[in-house]
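Hi support team,

I submitted a single chain yesterday and got back a structure, but I'm not sure I'm reading the token output correctly. Could someone confirm the output below corresponds to the sequence I sent? I've pasted both exactly as they appear in my results page.

Thanks,
R.
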Amino acid sequence: MDPPKKPTRGLMAQLRQKGDALRRGGKSADNDLQVGLLPNKGSLGRNYRFIRRILLPQIFSKRGGETLRPDLAAPGGPEFHVTWIGHASWLIQTEGVNVLVDPVWANWLGIVKRVRMPGLAIAELPAIHLVLVTHAHFDHLHLASLKQVASGQPIIVPKGVGSLVKNRGYGEVVELEYWEQIACGPLTITFTPSKHWGARVVHDTHRGFGGFLIQNSAGRTVFHCGDSAYFEGFTRIGETAAIDLALMPIGAYDSMSGREVHMNPEEALTSFTDLGAKHMMPMHYGTFPLGGEPMHEPLERLHSTAAERSLTEKVTAPEEGQPGIF
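Hi R., thanks for writing in. Yes, this is the structure output for that exact sequence:
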């Protein structure tokens, strides 16, 4: 399949006006969503415990997982095929279009080791028609991976992030603000709020952050949350679209800084309920040791709480590299 045509300027303007209308319906001001950068009291002790109990043991452990070679033909119909690559990286396929979200194939992020193999090999991906990046943090925006994927297709990023991905081989770099939308072939992409922070380094706090609603022409929708603490805005996001599948982060909640920047599994399930989504798949756990919690804990807590809330049938924990159909 040929890459979807780039939107015309007229279509871009029309969709951005719709985004303005959606934004006026929201309740959260942008400055209420950004978490401050200053650590809370006790951060030195938390960092010491993280390095001793989590980081160092993982550095010297054998990398787990397996890179698979599944059939990755994009479905021609309205269903979505979703494949977890690891961490927050997904291959999302529908109506002949292949979308990559937050593609990270790095084995190391500085001194942080990838402890499980990517579920798919980057060299064996199908033709990628569109790339989405939720924010500029190194575990979501990995320049080497982005460069390997680039083949003249468009890339969509939050406002303020475009300068990081320019001249990387993409045909068009599109920056979106909250609730703005853009069409790409049969898909409509909406950039949604989150409660997080977007600075790649300490001083560049102007960079945006958020999630994406990915809707096909049949109206089916997948929501990629990006990174977020819990906030009331998930209800508003759920009112915007009937979400068939929500990809929700459940790890790195025991932050070394003490800031509330990620959801724990219980909060992720509450957010899933707020969204009114039909199904949930967890992410942002088990790949990179980024929080003080034990690596096995997020998934165990998710399963336990889902059972307590009678949500077990709605929650599927994916295996890296195994496509799911929704």
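A quick pointer for reading it: Residues 247 and 281 are 5 Å apart (CA to CA). Let us know if anything else looks off.

Best,
Support desk
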